[in-house]
């Protein structure tokens, strides 16, 4: 059996797969090279960098390739409908990176509340902006979580432990422990901090109308999918004072292309780091090993 890990794989997982007499290719391929390589393997493992579109999968159907594994949560870079309709098995690793992302969001909330990234930058440029960067405490503030899945639940517990009031909106869930469920409009209207944890819903799920509903001076964290957030509407909301700041770990175009995001001091950016911890990658790797064993009927 052959596996292509086109965006890499944790070393421990690689060694475990080799014990199963599996040949693993850890190189990265694009375009026609990717298509040709996919025809030679039984399983492909991808992260966010590789996209398995219907055009690619059309050229690899009726070959050895049967199992498509997304090392992570989001599946928007795989054409799931086409894959399932043409005999492919699609799997992901929804549990492994949840804690890492939840911890990252707590860091983002504190960073926004206390101006930590911009204060670091200006201080290193010999600007002592102590008065300019007087922040707020997060204790007693309302955190609105949009999407109460694995990440949302872990974030809620961590925020609750820090003294935040947690409310949530979810399209499919309206009860979760002792946290208050609100409609999306009520959550936007009452939250001091808003954190998005849904899969891709639709392009610009949070846009001008949603920003207008939000509480004046609120903060936003997006670690879900870049397309969920209207970047142009966000910049307008920040410029008119509706939104005090935003931390974006995901973008519409990665690597970043939107110069307006780069130039705005109230927008903090990171290169999709939510699940980028040693622990998360090890968990993802072992979850993939289990998926492969199941596929092999072991």
TrEMBL record:
Top EC class, one word: oxidoreductase
Record-annotated D-isomer specific 2-hydroxyacid dehydrogenase catalytic domain positions: 8-296
Pfam annotation, one family: 2-Hacid_dh
Listed GO MF terms: (S)-2-hydroxyglutarate dehydrogenase activity; 4-phosphoerythronate dehydrogenase activity; NAD binding; phosphoglycerate dehydrogenase activity
GO process annotations (BP): L-serine biosynthetic process
UniProtKB keywords: Amino-acid biosynthesis, NAD, Oxidoreductase
Transmembrane segments: none
EC number(s) recorded for this UniProt protein: 1.1.1.290
Record domain D-isomer specific 2-hydroxyacid dehydrogenase NAD-binding: where: 107-274
The family this protein is said to belong to: Belongs to the D-isomer specific 2-hydroxyacid dehydrogenase family.
Name of the featured protein: 4-phosphoerythronate dehydrogenase
Native source species: Peptoanaerobacter stomatis
Phylogenetic classification of the source organism: Bacteria, Bacillati, Bacillota, Clostridia, Peptostreptococcales
């Amino acid at each position: 059996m052959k596996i292509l890990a086109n965006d890499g794989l944790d070393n421990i997982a690689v060694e475990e797969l080799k014990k199963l007499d599996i040949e693993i290719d850890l190189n990265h391929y694009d375009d026609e090279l990717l298509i040709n390589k996919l025809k030679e393997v039984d399983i492909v493992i991808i992260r966010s960098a590789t996209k398995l579109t219907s055009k690619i999968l059309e050229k690899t159907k009726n070959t050895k390739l049967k199992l498509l594994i997304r090392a992570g949560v989001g599946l928007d870079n795989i054409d799931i409908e086409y894959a399932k309709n043409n005999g492919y098995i699609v799997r992901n690793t929804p549990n492994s990176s949840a804690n890492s992302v939840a911890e990252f969001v707590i860091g983002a909330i504190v960073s926004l509340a206390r101006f930590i990234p911009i204060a670091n930058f200006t201080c290193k440029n010999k600007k002592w902006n102590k008065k300019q960067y007087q922040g707020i405490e997060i204790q007693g503030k309302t955190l609105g979580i949009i999407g109460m899945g694995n990440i949302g639940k872990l974030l809620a517990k961590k925020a609750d432990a820090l003294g935040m009031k947690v409310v949530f909106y979810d399209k499919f869930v309206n009860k979760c422990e002792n946290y208050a469920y609100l409609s999306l409009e009520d959550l936007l209207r009452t939250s001091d901090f808003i954190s998005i944890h849904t899969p891709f819903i639709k392009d610009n799920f949070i846009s001008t109308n949603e920003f207008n509903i939000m509480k004046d001076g609120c903060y936003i964290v997006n670690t879900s999918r870049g397309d969920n957030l209207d970047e142009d509407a966000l910049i307008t909301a920040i410029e008119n004072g509706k939104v005090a700041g935003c931390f974006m770990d995901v973008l519409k175009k990665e690597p970043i292309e939107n110069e307006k995001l780069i130039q705005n001091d109230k927008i903090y950016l990171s290169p999709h780091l939510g699940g980028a911890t040693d622990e998360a990658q090890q968990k993802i790797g072992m979850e993939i090993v289990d998926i492969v064993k199941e596929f092999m009927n072991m």
